[in-house]
Structures are given as C-alpha cells and as structure tokens.
Design a protein that fits this description.
alpha+beta; Phosphorylase Kinase, domain 1; 5-stranded antiparallel β-sheet; two-stranded antiparallel sheet; elongated; binds adenosine-5'-triphosphate; binds magnesium ion
C-alpha cells in the first residue's frame, strides 16, 4: 500500500523545506508522500479534515523511523504548485497594469487584527481589481477570488506563495502553514 513506498522505492524529492521532505508517489500520481514530525503531520491532518476547502487532504499518517525530527510519514493529496505560481504571476502583472499594488491580496491575513485603515485599503484595492478584471480578464478574477478565499481560511502564520497549489478540480489549496 501507498505508505510503504517510503521504505522500498528509490526517491527523488519533489520539494524540500526546513521541516519536511515531499516525494512523488510512484503508485498514485495524485498523491505525495511527506516526511516530517509525526505530531505536526497529525495536527495538519486534523486541520485538513476540519477545513477541506482550504487545506490539501492528508489521507493517512504513520510513524516513521527517520533521522532527527522525521518521525512521521503522510500520504497527501498532490496539488500543482507550478500552475498556481504561474497564475499568481499573471494575476500580479495584470494588477500592476491596472496600477493596483499587487501585494494587497496578502493583507487579507492582516484583516484579523481589526485595523480599520488596513481594511479600508484592502477593500479599495479589492473593489477596483474586481471591477477591472470583470471587464478584462474573468479567468484571473476567478483565480483572485479563489485565492483570497483560501488565504482567509488559512490558520497558521507561515503564509507565503510556496505553500499553495491547485487541485485536480481547479481549487486552490494550502499544504503547509
Ligand atoms: N501536497 C503537495 N503537493 C505538491 N507539492 C507539495 C505538496 N506538499 C509539499 N509540496 C512541495 O514540497 C515543498 C515543501 O513542502 P512543505 O512546505 O510542506 O515543507 P516545509 O519543510 O514546511 O517547507 P517550508 O519550511 O519551506 O515551509 C513545497 O514547497 C512543494 O514544492
Ligand atoms: Mg512549507
């Protein structure tokens, strides 16, 4: 079964961060195997079960006897990070062509601090972007709205553009926060 691949197959990492290593599954191309802290992977699994529209799904976590903090391995839904990043770049350049600050989207994560100025500025940029995208690029409008909804739902503090991907149904999902 899926998780046993981690012991048996020669692997090339798909991605590697400070805490986790991610491999392609050779058995199921829609899955990845992720090695990290068992407890962290378990708490991520709970989070993805509570918020399936925001987080990439973890199907199973098992104990793993790796070096240091690599105590767990998870089987996880694979998302397309390249497609996500290329759409984000396109959105950013479109926003720039509208004279909208391309970073405004990320401020959605600061709205929780309840700063009226922040909120006003965000809404101003958001409304302006929606209006222009409705007219010039409805595909990018769809992407922007999906991304903002995903960002609104992300709970952790480590939010950056390398933590997202697009699933097989075209939804944007976060896989680490
Ligand atoms: N579900 C997934 N689908 C596709 N690629 C993934 C998935 N999860 C992780 N990756 C790839 O592996 C990389 C590292 O994964 P992840 O962010 O979970 O590890 P990390 O060690 O916490 O990284 P960092 O500390 O840099 O945030 C990602 O940047 C991405 O390229
Ligand atoms: Mg990460």
């Amino acid at each position: 079964m899926g998780l046993d691949e981690i012991k048996t197959k020669k692997k090339r990492a798909l991605g590697r961060g400070r805490e986790k290593i991610t491999y392609r599954s050779t058995i199921n191309p829609n899955m990845v195997l992720k090695i990290g802290s068992y407890n962290e992977l378990m708490s991520y699994k709970e989070k993805s079960e509570k918020h399936p529209n925001i987080y990439a799904k973890i199907f199973e976590v098992r104990k793993y006897n790796g070096d240091g903090w690599y105590t767990g391995v998870a089987i996880m839904e694979k998302v397309d990070t390249k497609k996500f990043l290329s759409k984000l770049r396109k959105l950013e350049s479109t926003l720039e062509s509208f004279n909208v600050n391309k970073y405004f989207i990320w401020n959605v994560t600061n709205l929780s601090i309840n700063d009226q100025n922040f909120e006003d500025r965000f809404n101003e940029n958001y409304n302006k972007s929606v209006k222009l995208l409705e007219k010039h690029d409805t595909e990018m409008l769809d992407f922007m709205i999906k991304f903002i909804n995903c960002l609104r739902g992300v709970l952790g503090g480590d939010v950056h553009e390398w933590q997202f991907g697009i699933d097989k149904d075209g939804n944007i999902k976060c896989f680490d926060d």
